[in-house]
Write a structure and sequence with these properties.
alpha/beta; Rossmann fold; seven-stranded mixed β-sheet
Length: about 525
């Protein structure tokens, strides 16, 4: 503790690989690393208590999302009030672009780490441990004489295989009663999406847009997780797992499959991400052979105009083709639908609702395009004079006043159904995947029956969501709706939806518990090599 300790603070709803990789680098350098959960201001008391107890040399705050900036500003304040006198720094996507604002608004914050932080944090620890100054440290921003000083850009790790493995939880996360693990096989993305900051995060450091780990390194990590935690399912959190090149993707999947089998890991299921335009029969054949059971597709919209506006290169036909191919190959896709963006119209929202209706049985949710630091969309809105708010919460008003009205009503009445982190539709996506895990490892009549109940719930919740949005869309299409009528409509719909969702939430919780209990019981019977288990 103390002179040889760092506390890394951030969300822990899922395994936080950004902080876990930092912890691995810190520990390899001979220091202690402690991961402190912090998801919102309700966790401030526990986080401050943990830091004070550990008395670390550095507190590192992992700030990846702008909606939680205010919570982190409050945390810095409370850490100082609580008596912590050590060094506080922060890093992640938001600090990489908004370092001046953070250092301005958080007097208790000492520095900001930009871009990838493994090397920078270790160098900071070494210097602080011997009392040396942090000036000119690559990847660091600090105050000097009342001014903000930006050090040289941090150097991206050119060979991801050289990174220390992430620090793992003592106990794995569980889905459907089965141990799961989160990994990355790459960093970066080749996409040019106008709303995404991933490319800008990497490019600003002067590195390649995409770096891949070797198949042997990935397989070695998965094999270790299987041996340690009996992991059965792996969530690949790459922003780009399925590559733009069909041949490159197939070669990579075959290499991963061969490397896993060489380590006798031949029955692990994978959840991966893919872009609709890269989904082909050959890619899905290779994916299925590797053990992929789920693909999160970057569908975003069913409107060609909206896709172009968002900087996507696929077409609506690619969405339909990718989904149909996934169905044919026994790989269930999920996706988000960006119903709203700064220039969308009611008519274009209706097109995407038609698409949602056509795929009402698949796990999906709806959302608005948000504005993130470092993105082309932010620069576009700022140049147009339409950017609202600040780095803590950028916003905008849609050109189409009717679409703006629809969003304002939907944001209220569908908050618990769709927009909240723990919304019903997000829970259903998790539930649907838990069902897939059982289909993979425990096929049989009981799994089929539980799956049918999950499907019924998915279709019911999605059908009601589309009905609500269509009804509201028709209302907003009528000119001159007074604002007080919109408020009354939103509140009334919210109360009615809440009443309808009570039994849906109860059913989702019951199915989740059934799958969990059954997975715990049946999973314990699977041998270490994880062969298929056929339920009697």
């Amino acid at each position: 503790m103390g002179r040889h300790c760092v506390c890394l603070v951030g969300p822990a709803e899922q395994e936080n690989l950004a902080l876990a990789y930092l912890a691995g680098a810190v520990e390899q350098a001979g220091y202690e690393a402690h991961l402190v959960p912090f998801s919102s201001r309700r966790d401030i008391g526990a986080a401050v208590a943990a830091v004070i107890r550990l008395s670390p040399l550095i507190v590192g705050l992992g700030l990846s999302f702008q909606y939680c900036v205010e919570d982190y500003l409050r945390l810095v304040q409370e850490l100082r009030r609580g008596g912590y006198e050590g060094h506080i720094t922060c890093g992640g996507h938001v600090p990489t672009f908004c370092y001046r604002e953070l250092l301005r608004d958080a007097p208790g914050l000492d520095t900001v780490v930009r871009h990838e932080g493994e090397r920078t944090v270790v160098d900071m620890l070494a210097r602080l441990a011997r009392g040396a100054p942090l000036r000119e440290l690559a990847g660091l921003v600090w105050r000097e004489g009342g001014e903000v000083v930006v050090g040289p850009p941090g150097c991206l790790c050119p060979d991801l295989d050289q990174l220390p493995l992430p620090q793992r939880r003592a106990e794995p996360f569980v889905v459907g009663g089965m141990p799961i693990a989160f990994i990355i096989t790459a960093r970066g993305c080749t996409g040019e999406c106008a709303y995404c900051s991933i490319g800008a995060f990497v490019s600003a450091a002067g590195g390649p847009r995409l770096r891949l780990r070797s198949a042997d390194a990935v397989a070695g990590e998965v094999a270790a997780l299987v041996a340690r935690h009996r992991v059965r399912t792996v969530f690949v959190q790459d922003d780009l797992f399925i590559l733009p090149s069909e041949s490159g993707t197939i070669e990579r999947m075959e290499q991963l499959d061969a490397a896993l089998r060489a380590r006798h890991v031949d029955e692990v299921a994978f959840w991966v991400k893919g872009r609709p335009e890269t989904i082909t029969p050959a890619v899905l054949h290779a994916a299925r052979g590797m053990g992929v059971i789920h693909v999160f597709l970057g569908v975003e919209s069913a409107s060609a105009e909206r896709l172009r506006y968002l900087g996507r290169v696929h077409r609506p036909a690619d969405n339909e083709r990718a989904i149909e191919l996934c169905r044919q190959h026994g790989i269930r896709p999920s996706f988000n639908l960006m119903l709203f963006d700064p220039d969308c119209t009611l008519e274009q929202v209706a097109v995407t609702l038609d698409f949602a209706t056509a795929h009402i049985d698949l796990p999906w949710n709806v959302c608005r395009t948000e504005i993130y630091a470092g993105t082309r969309l932010l620069r576009r809105l700022r140049a147009q004079g339409r950017l609202r708010g600040d780095y803590r919460s950028y916003g905008y008003q849609m050109r189409d006043a009717r679409a703006e009205l629809l969003f304002r009503i939907a944001r209220v009445c569908l908050h618990e159904r769709a927009f909240a982190f723990d919304s019903l539709l997000n829970r259903i996506i998790s539930l649907s995947f838990a069902r897939q895990v059982h289909e993979r490892f425990f096929p049989g009549v009981t799994t089929d029956a539980l799956g049918a109940e999950v499907d019924e719930l998915v279709i019911d919740a999605h059908g009601d969501t589309v009905d609500v949005l269509r009804r509201l869309l028709d209302r907003c299409a009528q000119a001159g709706a007074p604002s007080f009528e919109a408020r009354e409509l939103a509140i009334g719909e919210a109360l009615a939806i809440g009443r309808r969702d009570q039994p849906r939430r109860a059913r989702a919780a019951d199915l989740w518990q059934q799958l969990h209990a059954r997975g715990l019981a049946l999973g314990s019977r699977l041998p270490g090599s994880r062969p298929r288990h056929r339920e009697p």
